[in-house]
Amino acid sequence: MDRRVIWAIVLMMFIAVAPTFLVKKPARTGTTGEAGRPAAVQPAGPDAGVPAAAPARQDSAAPAPPPIGDAAAPQGAEQTVVVRSALYTYRISTRGGRLVSAELGEYASMAPTEAGRAELLRQGDALLGLTVVAGRDTIPLDRWVFEPSATELTVTGPTPLVLTGSQGGVGVTLTYTFTPDYRIAVSGQVSGLGGQGGFALVGLGTGLRNTERDSVQNEREYAVVVKGADAERTNFRSLDGGESRVLSGPFEWAAVKSKYFVASLFAFDSTGGRRGRITGVSMSAPAGAGKNPTAVQVLASIPVSAAGSVSYAAYAGPLEYDRLTAIGHDFDDVNPYGWPGFRTMIRFFAVPVRWLLVQMHESLHLSYGVVLILFGLLVRLLLWPLNQKAMRANMQMMDVQPQLKAAQEKYKDNPQMLQQEMFRLYKEYNVNPLSGCWPMLLPMPVLFALFFVFQNAIELRGQPFLWLPDLSRPDPLYIIPVLMGISMFGLSKVGQMGMEPNPQMKMMLYVMPVMMTVLFVNFPSGLNLYYTVSNIASIPQQWLIARERKKRLARQIVEVKTRKPKKA
Q: How far apart are CA 412 and CA 426, in angstroms?
């Protein structure tokens, strides 16, 4: 392999890996801490189950009245409404009308301490808890016990659940409409507000439950993502214990995500515009959490009209790309491919690569391991003509090397003349110095795309192959990374056949495979499988080119020996 190609690959790998060690820019926020918070959003206190009330207006020195509902608890015992579809089992508590369980039927929990179906919510946590603020009155609906229209529902189409309650002259009706595909439409009607309107604080919990074997990697993906002009992400780890942060809207949606799952809230503009109705999102880390918290209370603020109506939608389920794109409003950006600054380029390759892998798996009924082997062979087959052209261009460069060295020696003190002589030689020998490099770099974007596909695509989660328990995780036996390094060494060794001895290339022959093996050892095993297959599939072409190179070199030697010396 040409030395310039090797260094180009090293540089591209460095560019791809370096951003993971850099500090990520925080999402656009409002004022953090106590000063300057928007009145519409107030971070919650340490009690994860009870959203904090909004502050009283600052135009009065009189103390604020207690929240409605504190004087007397509502009558009735708490019940749990079970909502089942082919994809999920949701449980709604009549206390506050909160979603207290979201079990996904198609996904297993891989956490070492749990078995069975994946459960999204943490023990004691809840989603969609409501607090209504109207003027100086705070109505903590999560303390109310509602009367449900049913105690069990089976969802095969849009299925409503109506929760009603009243207290202290205020009446509330909440209507949840469940669909078979993880989406929930919510509409509420609050009477007794005096026609002044207000806003509702909707709880998004404190983060999703760990469902993965590698809990540390899963916790790194805990984040709040909001969509204003663009999707903006705030990692839980960017907060410190006791810190509060407010993201100022308007937002079309707000979500809390883990590596493979998400709980989100949607409030689109009813006119169809791009402005959302979520006025702000607050985050609050518990005081004793220290640095890198894994639990952060998240609340979203949505306006309540003067007539007392409020509406929004929710999604609690997997990060399946097709489902995310079907929702629209760029919701697929909740789980982006690539690091900031590289996403546009990587997404261009990652989206079609993911689609092709999934289609091959589903249409041909093949395991993802076999799909990757076929995909690696297909990529090499498609790139065969370009690689052939690149390798022959390298041979042409070898032919002109003696003249280039002579020119460099002759014009070492005259850069301008050296450049002119080099251009003359390139033209005379019909050589493009870059033509041998870029075709061999074309597979690199696919390699990067596969890295992010295996890191993010839930379709590949838990997919086994041979001894590999999960193609989206590293090989626990380190067999595939070692095979990848050996295949890279073999490819380089064959590629150097017929070349003049070069100490630098000989060094890279041994250094590069070791460096890449160390770099790839903790990468997804599926990525290493693809790269290994790609290397092995490239060896025949390298061998054919090496034979051609040897024959060409032999002809040149014969021509030199048989050339008659000129007469004096």
A: 18
